[in-house]
Amino acid sequence: MLVEGTDYRDIQYGVADRIATITLNRPERMNAFSERMLAEWAGAIRRAQDDDAVRVVIVTGAGRAFCAGADLRESGDEDRVLLTSRNPGERRNALRLSVHRVPQALQYLDKPYIAAVNGAAVGAGMDMASMADIRISSDAARYGMSYVTVGLVPGDGGAWLLPRLVGVQKALELIWSGELFDAAEALRIGYVARVVPHDRLIEETRAYARQLAAGPPVAVQLAKRLVYRGMQQSFPEALEAAQAAFTIVQSTEDAREGPLAFREKRSPDFQGR
């Protein structure tokens, strides 16, 4: 297993304007993921979470694709990811120790995570896009839950994620058919938040990210926790969680800065304290 670190090859990582950008960097393979990419991707997510200078994270792809899922054309990758030649006992941890490293890392990322979908997002690549809090799509992007076309089921969380984004009926239709659909359809069904011209994707995404980064980070992060945890809670439990979060944000300097800036008719300067 590769060690997650900062010596990147299959991704690029950079921070500017309090925004961390993870760029999947195997354009010659349509950013299909290797074991190395998965380790670097998960490590970059953890790095962004631990960096107080980062308030928002963007993930995108280099070249003409966002992510084409697992790279089964690279020598040996099929056996490592699918383990089709091995028995069920040997396969039991195959996904957990490979592709699941990214969603495992995202479970602890409470900062906004935005996918700038620049091209094809298919199979596990679409699952990876589904993990984002917000998806902003190029008008050239294409999507597809293509697992069934190779005799598989969604293995990277898609069967859990997709119904929560587009509803059970539409999710099953997309999973069972495996058909590709375009950005306009992704917007129509509510899978993406917005569609922008391809040549403006990164510019528009970064502009949106800067707005989020200018907000009060403690409140933004706690709001994200409330939303996701609330999906698994009863309403009374959600109200109790909201009370606890509200108590925390009330004690911050940012909670005083916001009303003060309003009274002084200026933009607030939120410090995350």
CATH architecture identity of the largest domain: Alpha-Beta Complex
What is the overall silhouette? globular
CATH topology of the largest domain: 2-enoyl-CoA Hydratase, Chain A, domain 1
- Assign a percent range to the helix content: 40-55%
Biggest pleated sheet? 6 strands, mixed
Q: What is the class of the largest domain in the CATH system?
A: Alpha Beta
Strands, total number = 10
Uncertain ranges: none
**How many independent structural domains?**
2
Strand content: 15-25%
Structural class, from helix and strand content?
alpha/beta
Give the SSE order as H and E letters. Answer: EEHEEHHHEEHEEHHEHEHHHH
Alpha carbon gyration radius: 19 Å
Main sheet strand line-up: 1-2-3-5-7-10
CATH level-four homologous superfamily name of the largest domain: 2-enoyl-CoA Hydratase, Chain A, domain 1
Oligomeric state as shown: single chain
Ends: how far apart?
Answer: 38 Å
Number of helices: 12
Average pLDDT works out at: 90
